[in-house]
Amino acid sequence: MLARDVISEDVPPIRPNESINKALVWMDDFKVSHLPVVDGKKFIGILSEDDILGLPHAEDCSVKDCEIELKKIFVTENQHVFDVIKTISDFHLTVIPIIRDNDEYIGCVTNAHLMHVIAEMSVVRDLGGIIELEMNVRDYYFSQIARVIEENDAKILGAFITSPPDTTKMNLTIKVNTYEIDGIIQSFERLGYTVVGSYGSNVYDEDFRERLDEFFKYLNI
């Protein structure tokens, strides 16, 4: 899935000759803290609510006349959705502009819409059991983990890693295509993996969604 596939029509761009007050109204209406600034079809930069509020009487002027340095943060249309997530996280954005190589603005996506897109992915929606493993980073070999699951007649639907700072440990959360996961857990334990959580009932599909929410909170989006 590419950036162009997750474009949302929810938030319009602001024009350089439009007022800062209009930008603030839109930010409030659309529940965002950033707006793309676009001149014609050309992407100019991102207008931030923090920058506006830090400038006295900014609401009385237009975007182009205010002394606000617009940050040129964006993703291109062919970047993967994971790059979109990373950019939003790295710069603590509520909106990320999507452009073509010639700076042509083609749309944007909000972090709220991006979460909706993730929630609709098959890894979240498809039924299956969940296993959470803890291990040292140096002991992580996905090929071995996949082999254990396949030897128990199951398939991996999806997986993600959380690795808190200042630690050599990591947690791997795996979703498989079956609720019958006792054999998989026993295989992992025989190989010395620490199983810190397992959910083999369809009641716990919601738990996987919650863990994804925690994962994105960890990314600060």
Structure summarized in a few sentences:
This protein is of the alpha+beta class. Helix content is about 35%, strand content about 25%. The longest helix is centred in the last third of the chain and has 14 residues.
Topology:
Blueprint: H1 20-30, E1 34-39, E2 42-48, H2 49-53, E3 75-76, H3 81-91, E4 95-99, E5 105-110, H4 111-119, H5 122-125, E6 130-136, H6 142-151, E7 156-162, E8 169-176, H7 182-190, E9 194-199, H8 205-218
Parallel strand pairs: 3-4
Antiparallel strand pairs: 1-2, 4-5, 6-8, 6-9, 7-8
Q: Could you explain how this protein is built, in words?
A:
- With 221 residues, the protein is of the alpha+beta class.
- It has 2 domains: 3-119, CBS-domain (Roll); 122-218, ACT domain (Alpha-Beta Plaits, 2-Layer Sandwich), CATH 3.30.70.260.
- 33% of the residues lie in helices and 24% in strands.
- The chain has a 4-stranded antiparallel β-sheet, with helices on both faces.
- The protein is elongated, with a radius of gyration of 22 Å.
Provide tags for this entry.
Alpha-Beta Plaits; CBS-domain; 33% helix; 4-stranded antiparallel beta sheet; elongated; alpha+beta; 221 residues
- CATH topology heading of the largest domain: CBS-domain
* Helical content band: 25-40%
| Element pattern in H and E | HEEHEHEEHHEHEEHEH
Stretches where pLDDT is under 50 for at least 5 consecutive residues are: none
How much strand content do the residues show? 15-25%
> Separation of termini?
19 Å
Count every beta strand, where a strand is a DSSP E run of 2 or more residues: 9
Strand order of the largest sheet: 7-8-6-9
Mean pLDDT equals 87
CATH structural architecture of the largest domain? Roll
Number of helices: 8
Can you tell me the overall shape?
elongated
In CATH, the homologous superfamily of the largest domain goes by the name CBS-domain
Q: What is the CATH class name of the largest domain?
A: Alpha Beta
Radius of gyration: 22 Å
The biggest beta sheet is recorded as: 4 strands, antiparallel
Count of separate structural domains: 2
